[in-house]
Amino acid sequence: MSSVFFMLTMGLYFVSTVCYLAYLLRRAETLSKVSLGITAAGFATHTVALVARMADSSQAQLPTFHEALSFFSWMLILVFLAVEYRRQLHVLGSFIVPLALVSLVTAAAFRSDGASSLQPVFKTLWVHVTLSMLGTVGFAVAFVAGVMYLIQDGLLKSKRFNVLYAKLPALDYLDHLNQQSIVMGFPLLTLGIISGAFSAEIVRGSYVNWNPEQTWAMVTWGFYFAVLVGRLTIGWRAKRAAYLTIIGFAGVILTLIGVVLKSHGSVS
Amino acid sequence: MHVIVVGLSHKTAPVEIREKLAVPESRLREALSRLCTYPGVREGLLLSTCNRVEVYAVVEDLEGGYGRVQEFLADTHLSLSSEHLTPHLYWHAGDRAISHLFRVASSLDSMIVGESQILGQIKDAFEVALTHKASGLLLNKIVKKAISVAKRVRTETKIAETAVSVSYAAVELAKKIFSNLTEKTVLLIGAGEMAKLAARHLIANGVRQVRITTRNLQHGLELAQKFNGTAVPFEDYKTELAAADIVLVSTGASHYLVTADDVQRAMRQRMNRPMFLIDISVPRNIDPAVRPIDDAFLFDIDDLHMRVEQNREDRLREAAKAEQMVVEEVAVLGQWLQSLEVTPTIVALRGRTEEIKRREVEKVLARLAHLSSEDRAAVEALASAIVNKMVHGAMVTLKAEATSSSGAAYVDAARRFFSLEDTPPAYPPAQTDVQDGSEGSGTGNGANRFSGESLVQHTTKEQSRRVS
C-alpha cells in the first residue's frame, strides 16, 4: 500500500511543481491556490505513505536512505505549509516544492523492499537519522531563503521590476527566514551528530573514526556554527548570509552523497 | 428635476483656464450660496481641485439649468466669459452625470488613474455643501453613493495598489527591502518638495524615526517639527548615514554629497544591514558608484520614474474592471431615483385608495341588499368623496413640491404614510399621464409637467451641447 501512495505523492508533487513554476511567471493569483491545493493533497498521501511504510517495516529495520529522504521531503512540505499558513507567502512554494520533489524522486531511486533487518541496536540510528534530517530541513529552508534573497537582491540592483519582483517578499524578511531556519536547524544537526556518535560507538566501538562522511558532517557543523556566530558578531547577514547558506547546503548534500556512496542505501 | 454636472477638467481645459476657475477654499461657501440663488437651481455641490472644477446640481429644467450653471462658472472670474469657457466645458445629465461623479470619485477620470486624493476632495466638497445646506436629498444620496462606489473600487480592484507618483514609488521600493517600516530610521538630507512628500508617505507607512538635515538650520528645525523628527547639523550628515535605514537626498548642491566611500564606511558600521538610498536631486547628489556596494540600494529620479511608468500600465488594466463596477452601481442608483419619481407615486396612491374604496363599498353593499340602485349610487359617491378628500391634500402637496429641493422627501414620506413601498412604482410611460379632473379633485395641471421626464433620463442635449 505504501508504494501506491508513494507514487501518488510523487505525481502530485510533480504537478504542483509545474503549477508553482508557472505561477512564478504569471500574474494570475488563482494558480497559487491550485498549486497549494495539489501540494496539500500530496502532503496527505505522503503522510499515508510514510505511516504505511513504518507499519510495514519492523522496528529492528535499519533506516534506509529512502526513508530518510522521503521524510526530509515530507518535513520540507510541512514547513512550507506552516509558513504559507502564517504569512501567505505563495512564492515560497515555487522554491520549496521542487526541492521536495527532487528529494522524493531521489528517495524513489533508493527504494528497496528487502527487509534488511539486523540487530535492535539500530534504534539509536533512527534517532540519529531523524534529528539529522530535521536539521537538514532547516538548512534547506535557509538555502531556499538565500536563493530567493539573491534573486530579489539582483532584481532590485538591476532595477528589473518584473512579476517575480512583485511576488518575492521584502529582503529583510528573507534574511529573517534564513536566520530562523539556521537557528532551528543547527541544534537539531548538533543533536543528530551526537546521536550519530553514540550509534557509531555501538556499531563500531568508537564515537568518531573520521571517515569521510563524518569529517564532512563535522565540517558542515563547523561551517554553520561560524555562519551563526558571524551573523551575530561581524555582520554576516543579508547578501553574505545568503551566499553562505547556499554554500553550506551544498556541503550538506555532499555529506549525504558520501553517506550513500559508503553504505549503499543504509545510513550509518 | 434633473441631476446635472457642468465642468471642466485636465482633459478638456489647460491649466490657465483651470486656475482661473478654481475656487479657493475660503470662497467656497460664498460661491455655493451664489449658485443656489440662481433660479431653478435646487441643490448644488462645487468640486474644485487643481485638476477639475465641476458643479453638480439638481435643476428644475435641463435647458435652463445648464445655462444657469454655466453662467455661474463664468461669473467666478472677472476675465472669463461664457464664450471663453464653452469650448472647455462638458455637460451631463441624469445617468451620465451620476456615472461621471462615480468615475471621478473612483479616480478613473484622474490625471493619475487610481490616485486617492480625489476621494478626500469630494468628501470635503460634500461637507461644505452639507453645512451650507446647498446639498439636499438627491445630491446627498448620490454623493454618498459615489463615495461608497469609490471605496468598493479601491478594495475590489488593484487600481490603487501600485505606486504612480515618484514619492510613493519610493515607499513601494522601501517595502521590498524592509518588510516593516516602523522600526526604521529615515534621514532626510535637504528638503526638496518631492523628498518632503516621500518622507510624508514613509511616515504614513509607519516610519517613526525621522532625522533631518538642511543647510539652513532654521529650515531644518521647522521641518523637524512638522515631521515630528530631529534636526541635525548639516556638517554631520556623513556620520548620520550609518544609523539611517532610508536616506532621502534632495539638495540643490551641484556635486556628490554622498560618495561611495561614505556609504562603504556606513555599511561597515551597520554590519551590512541593508540601506535604501533615494536621490531625488538633479543634478544627482549621491555618487552612482554607490550602486555596486552590497546591501546598499541606490535609486535616482529616473529609476523612480521608470517604476511609476510600469505601474501606470498595470493600473489601466485594473481600471477596466472598475468601469464595469461603476456601470453596475449607476444602474442601482437609477432604480432608487426612479422610485422617487412623483408621478408613479401619485399613480400608486390613486390605485391604492381606489382599491380600498372598492373593497369597502362592496362589503357594505353586500350586507345592504335591500337598497335601491339610487341609494347604492349614493353610497358609492359618498365613499368616493371621502377617499378623494382624504388624499387630496397629499396629492396637491406632492405635485407642488415635485420641483422643490425637498420634493423627493415628500415622495418618500407619501410612500411610507400610504404603505406604497410594497407596490413598486409602475412606470410605463402610458400610465404617467395622470388625469385628475375625472376624479373631481380639481387640481388638474402640473402633473404632466414632470411626467414625461425622468430624473434618471439623460437627454441628447449633452451631445448637441458638446462643442466639437
The gist of it:
Chain A is an all-alpha fold. Chain A has nine helices and no strands.
Question: What does this protein look like?
Answer:
The complex is a heterodimer of chains A (268) and B (468). Chain A is mostly helical. Chain A has helices at 2-25, 30-56, 65-87, 93-109, 123-158, 163-167, 171-204, 212-234, 238-263. Chain A has two domains: 1-116; 119-268, no CATH class. In chain A, helix 7 packs antiparallel against helix 8 (212-234) and helix 8 (212-234) runs antiparallel to helix 9 (238-263). Chain B has three domains: 2-156 and 315-336, Beta Polymerase, domain 2; 166-294, NAD(P)-binding Rossmann-like Domain (Rossmann fold); 342-449, no CATH class. Helices cover 53% and strands 12% of the residues of chain B. Chain B has a six-stranded parallel sheet. In chain B, strands 2-3-1-4 form a four-stranded antiparallel sheet, with helices on both faces. In chain B, helix 10 links the parallel strand 6 and strand 7 (230-231). In chain B, helix 6 (117-131) packs antiparallel against helix 7 (137-156), helix 8 packs across helix 13 and helix 14 (342-367) runs antiparallel to helix 15 (373-401). Chain B is elongated and about 115 Å long. The A-B interface holds A 152, 156-157, 159, 161, 165, 168-173, 176, 234-240 and B 173, 175-180, 268, 270-274, 291, 294-295, 297, 299, 303, 306-307, 310.
Descriptors:
heterodimer, A: 268 residues, mainly alpha, 2 domains, 9 helices, 0% strand, B: 468 residues, alpha/beta, Beta Polymerase, domain 2, Rossmann fold, 3 domains, six-stranded parallel beta sheet, four-stranded antiparallel beta sheet, 18 helices, 10 strands, 53% helix, 12% strand, elongated, disordered C terminus
